[in-house]
Hints:
Strand content of chain C: 15-25%
Strand order of the largest sheet of chain C: 6-7-8-3-9-10
Number of strands of chain C: 10
Mean pLDDT of chain C: 84
Radius of gyration of chain C: 18 Å
Number of helices of chain C: 10
Largest sheet of chain C: 6 strands, mixed
Largest interface: A-B, 43 and 48 residues
Helix content of chain C: 25-40%
Distance between the termini of chain A: 19 Å
Order of helices and strands of chain C: EEEHEEHEHHHEHEHEEHHH
Number of helices of chain A: 15
Order of helices and strands of chain A: HHHHHHEHHHHEHHHHH
Strand order of the largest sheet of chain A: 1-2
Low-confidence stretches of chain A: none
Oligomer: heterotrimer
Amino acid sequence: xxxxxxxxxxxxxxxxxxxxxxxxxxxxxxxxxxxxxxxxxxxxxxxxxxxxxxxxxxxxxxxxxxxxxxxxxxxxxxxxxxxxxxxxxxxxxxxxxxxxxxxxxxxxxxxxxxxxxxxxxxxxxxxxxxxxxxxxxxxxxxxxxxxxxxxxxxxxxxxxxxxxxxxxxxxxxxxxxxxxxxxxxxxxxxxxxxxxxxxxxxxxxxxxxxxxxxxxxxxxxxxxxxxxxxxxxxxxxxxxxxxxxxxxxxxxxxxxxxxxxxxxxxxxxxxxxxxxxxxxxxxxxxxxxxxxxxxxxxxxxxxxxxxxxxxxxxxxxxxxxxxxxx
Amino acid sequence: xxxxxxxxxxxxxxxxxxxxxxxxxxxxxxxxxxxxxxxxxxxxxxxxxxxxxxxxxxxxxxxxxxxxxxxxxxxxxxxxxxxxxxxxxxxxxxxxxxxxxxxxxxxxxxxxxxxxxxxxxxxxxxxxxxxxxxxxxxxxxxxxxxxxxxxxxxxxxxxxxxxxxxxxxxxxxxxxxxxxxxxxxxxxxxxxxxxxxxxxxxxxxxxxxxxxxxxxxxxxxxxxxxxxxxxxxxxxxxxxxxxxxxxxxxxxxxxxxxxxxxxxxxxxxxxxxxxxxxxxxxxxx
Amino acid sequence: xxxxxxxxxxxxxxxxxxxxxxxxxxxxxxxxxxxxxxxxxxxxxxxxxxxxxxxxxxxxxxxxxxxxxxxxxxxxxxxxxxxxxxxxxxxxxxxxxxxxxxxxxxxxxxxxxxxxxxxxxxxxxxxxxxxxxxxxxxxxxxxxxxxxxxxxxxxxxxxxxxxxxxxxxxxxxxxxxxxxxxxxxxxxxxxxxxxxxxxxxxxxxxxxxxxxxxxxxxxxxxxxxxxxxxxxxxxxxxxxxxxxxxxxxxxxx
Lengths: 326, 285, 253
């Protein structure tokens, strides 16, 4: 009973979010924006596992996002495999890629690690652009719509996508929550705060970082599959885009509050609608204005409140709550 | 013959990469931070040179010093108003401040100049000198020559001038430099301005053979980091040698790979060097 | 004679062209307290770092309980029973004192039983009162003691203490020295870097003297204080030992 009470606020928030399609026009743009915001919240939370919890700043998570999108779509288009299966395959592939990338890069600190991940995403982009027989090259891939079919991850109504995305978000947030607690939570906090001290205290920092990198990559790939199914089209330059994907997911987590559970959600709910609104008003006049505003927000956020929105007032409450629970 | 031809092309292109990357390396060496926005200053430098050519009729290579000057001032201001505040902050804050700067500069250019490509018309654009059956491209050669002059000037500045010595002192030991009376904040600002200015100069001299657009920086990001990492972050001579190496690698890989895969070769070298020798290949053990 | 629990053979570390450690060899038996002294920059902290695996060796070997541990990562060396404290402290700043200690117990236990043991360690070091405080709010001497508590939480056989007594008052120092003796009596082997000569001289069974990365003398405290090479290292050629050695060393701290 006590557990139910403790999670009650969170559960009721999720329930309220689940009811949103009943209120909004199921075919309308507002629901689409809401679904997009939740999808970016999910992917930012996946980034937050490695960037926030393990403090490894990745600027190349688009690599895993794209791996997820390409794997499920290629499997569907060429082998008629359901994207649900492709989602699992994409996640496994991303986990493998993250593992292989981690071996040489985890000894790199801070800036160097960011550089290596950035280059990795570029490698993926170049490969996707040039391996035309597999990926379709620069033209990108289009998923033909064959009518609503839940087994093939295709829906006519935006509401269905919205619910799928909400489920994915809740799942990723749960993974984040459980990793940030218990033994794993202690290990990750120790690594974040002082890696050498964590090592001599008996923590296998490499293994912990490897786990979080692989979990993060796998979940990011799942979001990639969802993105592909949701948009029906993507190409190498958009899916592996540095500022559009890699930096955006990191930025959402940072502006919301890096390393916190609610940060990516708050960040996405703040940034994505803002972006949608500004594009709606300005798109025809200047494509760059929305992005320009984004960049300015990032700079101001770093200079004024590096801990993110969460740290202002709700973060304070959460901190107190967190302390007591120990 | 194509071997020597590639070598010549590689050296000429690589020399310019050298000056572009020297700026990045200088910033890292003195300020200790990786400037992810660095390639955007190259873009700004290219636009400055393009406008100088378009409105003043100045040859881009002669306009390159103007690129340097304008971007130097821009860099000085950026350091003074933005980067100064995160010099002691966490790498996360430093990384994302420069990333934010990247986004702002790229999109500001998009808003101001539009997304179109702009190129210059100069008489020597397609000329080349013939030498024993080899071609030496005129724009490559002039650009290379201009970077040699700047390298010499940079060397003189760092060795002889009072400010240059301060910069070197801060790079070697910030604490000792401050104790011996170097104004570290001012040194940081000048070094950052100088770093982005040198890269902008490189942007000016390549304008005869590369068109400019707001996203041109993206083409150079990984390239310039590869150069710097090859030579060892923070090392100026390393950046020059790394530039030559990357130029030659690029020009040789053109012999074996389709154009689309040329960058892949660079990226793989980049990740490899980062992973196995982050202190740089060309730095002694 | 002690059974050699820890054997270091020919440890060599280089930074650039400089020998930070040059062919340093020594042994430590179970329940022994060994002092490590030498002028600033002599390589004391480097020696500690290389023993626990934080600093890679150019040459040499470290054997702990008959097992070669050099080349292993620090967390494995810690699990085999050797860890160290950090000289200007390297605690987890956003954690409480108790959480800092708990973190070092994850190797072995579930959190519930670990908590009681952690409280026991804190009690022993007189830190129970501040168990729930953030370490960021502590004074330097308190932080040094938390370092020690965290290191003890890994259940070491060999514990390397890097200046945990710096900035303690004389009476606090006596308490810590008493705790160190008790730990020794329980069979723990301790290596101690300390600038307080009084502590070193009264605690240690044996003293190693480092200068410019080389081991220049080794022996019981009485012998070390009369060793000509040691006196020269501290005071320069021609000096004789008097109160000077202790004074000079305290100055350095």
